[in-house]
Amino acid sequence: MGATFPYRAGLFNFPFGWFIIAAMSDTPHRMHHDMGGQPAGPVSLAEHEIEPWEKRIEALLRCMQLREKPVVTVDELRRGIEELPPKLYDSLSYYERWIASLTNILVEKGVLSRAEIEQRMSALKAARAKEPS
């Protein structure tokens, strides 16, 4: 069950005025990423080294946030992660979710186009294919 409101639906007179309240407990909704309290198996508490690419993603996000006018906010990043389709969300690691969210936000805001991203990804794949194994 998701979070529930302690009141049933109805018209309530609070000290600050009358309000109509829909009972969330009547229609609980939990988004896929909200796994709190659900059986999901053990969580590994082992320390792990942060990979260089993960550090770059963290730095990239900070650069976009610490500008006078942020390109992306932490709330937008979270919204983007929460909007990922369940199968995609489950298949990505923590920082891969950041990448997916940042990509969608930058396209949404017109900072980059999907075509620009696809073109750059193709160029990177071609360069990597030329590298000796």
Overview of the molecule:
The chain folds into two domains: 1-29, no CATH class; 52-130, Nitrile hydratase, beta subunit (Cyclin A, domain 1, Orthogonal Bundle). The longest helix has 17 residues, at 114-130. The model is unreliable at 1-9 and 20-27 (pLDDT under 50). It is mainly α and 133 residues long. The chain has helices spanning 52-65, 74-82, 86-91, 94-108, 114-130; strands at residues 10-14, 17-21. A two-stranded antiparallel sheet has the order 1-2. Helix content is 46%, strand content 8%. It has five helices and two strands; from the N terminus they run ββααααα.
Provide a brief overview of the structure:
46% of the residues lie in helices and 8% in strands. It folds into 2 domains: 1-29, no CATH class; 52-130, Nitrile hydratase, beta subunit (Cyclin A, domain 1, Orthogonal Bundle). The protein is globular and about 45 Å long.
CATH class of the largest domain: Mainly Alpha
Strand content bin: 5-15%
How many helical stretches?
A: 5
Structural class: mainly alpha
Give the topology string: H per helix, E per strand: EEHHHHH
Give Rg in angstroms: 21 Å
**Low-confidence parts, pLDDT < 50 over ≥5 residues?**
1-9, 20-27
Spatial arrangement of strands, main beta sheet: 1-2
From the 3D structure, determine the CATH topology of the largest domain: Cyclin A, domain 1
Overall residue-averaged pLDDT value? 79
CATH architecture call of the largest domain: Orthogonal Bundle
Query: How many β-strand stretches?
Result: 2
Number of domains as seen in the coordinates: 2
Helix content: 40-55%
N- and C-termini, Cα separation: 50 Å
Shape: globular
Could you name the CATH homologous superfamily of the largest domain?
A: Nitrile hydratase, beta subunit
Main beta sheet strand tally, sense and closure: 2 strands, antiparallel
